[in-house]
Amino acid sequence: MNDIPEGCKRCVRGEKLVLFISGKCSRNCYYCSLSKKRKEVDEIWANERQCSSPENAIEEAKESNAKGAGITGGDPLLCLDRTIEYARALKSAFKDFHIHIYLPTTLMNRENLERINPYVDEVRVHPSFLQAFSKEASETIMKEDIKKIEIASEIFKKENLGIEIPIIPEKKEEIIEFVKRVSCLISFINMNELELSETNFDIFTEKYSFNEDTHTVSGSVSVGTEIMKSLRKINPALKVHLCTDYLKSNYQFGNRLRKHNILPFGFQDKEGMANYFAVYCKNEEELKEAEGKLKLEKRTDFYIDIPKKRIILSEKLAEHLIKNKRYKITKVTEYPTFDKTEVESSPIN
Length: 349
Ligand code: SF4
Hints:
The chain is of the alpha/beta class and about 350 residues long. It has 2 domains: about 5-260, TIM Barrel; about 265-345, Alpha-Beta Plaits (2-Layer Sandwich). The chain has helices at about 5-10, 55-65, 80-95, 110-115, 135-155, 170-180, 200-205, 220-235, 245-260, 285-295, 315-325; strands at about 15-20, 45, 50, 70, 100-105, 120-125, 160-165, 190, 240-245, 265-270, 275-280, 300-305, 310-315, 330-335, 340-345. Helix 2 (about 55-65) packs across helix 3 (about 80-95), helix 5 runs parallel beside helix 6 and helix 6 runs parallel beside helix 8. The longest helix is centred in the middle third of the chain and has 21 residues, at about 135-155. Iron/sulfur cluster (SF4) binds near residues 27 and 34. The site of iron/sulfur cluster has 11 residues, from loops.
């Protein structure tokens, strides 16, 4: 079996920080899967953490124990200075930090690619021809895409250059044709299952039917498998990866959660969710008062979580406080990620 690109390997293992560098894009693809909250909004997100400086992204990489990052958008070349600033900062903060970047072809030119080259390990080119609504237009745009990939191949090593595309079922032949024409310049292709989003909703609900999960497009994965088989015959050395929604939600995201740090005195379940025994306070004064009382008893097995105005307790301390009927204790299950979204919360006394 063919290998998959290094960026995909680390991503599936949950080791990649997703660095969303901006929602601003040089294109407006009809199939774009960005949410309304992200599309055309100039914000930076490292996983679930909004960033105002590269230090925030470094902090997120530490807390999620990332061994690399995937830079995405939007178009990272539209804010090239920012992209370089973040990539450079992450590279200097960590050893062997693998950065892959998603690049729409629109702004790919020699100057931009040479500038980004020192800071990225793997480039995933997103061609423009998939946006075309006729075969003739598609052929013209495809030629432009190929020229851009030729320039990229003079700057990046073949083993680090590939393409990334959504699997649009009716574009199967064009995708195979395109990959055939660039396969001497690249070493991998990553195909993403086509998904419904808020921003492609009208066009997708008119054009496609959906799988039982109600958001992935029927036929996208089966066409992806057919493309994969054809490409293996055309170029057996090409690494082909089919990135399904199932893989992303059940393996990649789950693995990322399991690797994420949690707060002291919590415990992580096998899904990677953080579980805590906690005393919730109404305000900071109440929090300080409760902290003072525990300190008077010379207890140290607790953690003050100021943003959530709560005291996280060791299991032993929780048992002790329950016996003494001192505080209302809640068992909470939440994502270990920066947003710490709660999924379950139940009072235990
Ligand atoms: S290039 Fe990517 S981010 Fe930009 S509009 Fe197209 S799919 Fe969306």
